[in-house]
Amino acid sequence: xxxxxxxxxxxxxxxxxxxxxxxxxxxxxxxxxxxxxxxxxxxxxxxxxxxxxxxxxxxxxxxxxxxxxxxxxxxxxxxxxxxxxxxxxxxxxxxxxxxxxxxxxxxxxxxxxxxxxxxxxxxxxxxxxxxxxxxxxxxx
Length: 140
Prior knowledge:
Blueprint: H1 8-30, H2 34-38, H3 42-50, H4 53-74, H5 79-100, H6 104-108, H7 110-135
């Protein structure tokens, strides 16, 4: 195994924290109480109730896979690449549901496009980083 550059571990740690924040957001979403849902507007309640299980599952795979994959990068494990590819697939599934299957994105406003764009770019970047790390022997 080759020694990675000095920036590798700090980047992996920052990405791990980023994905942990995604895990917290996911948990806060799936753990909404009936009171929380009742406080939403009618339109938001309808969107929340209409979300397909596969979309919620895609989000779970995206955030938990991202966190696990980044932990793999920190530990310099080759399986991080596969897990980060699964995480990217989860992001794509989430985006298909968000942008293609409902008007949730339109309701949330332009910030959702920026945020999901950043999420997608980070997921792609992590897959590319893990591939490079595998190729150069930084992880094994």
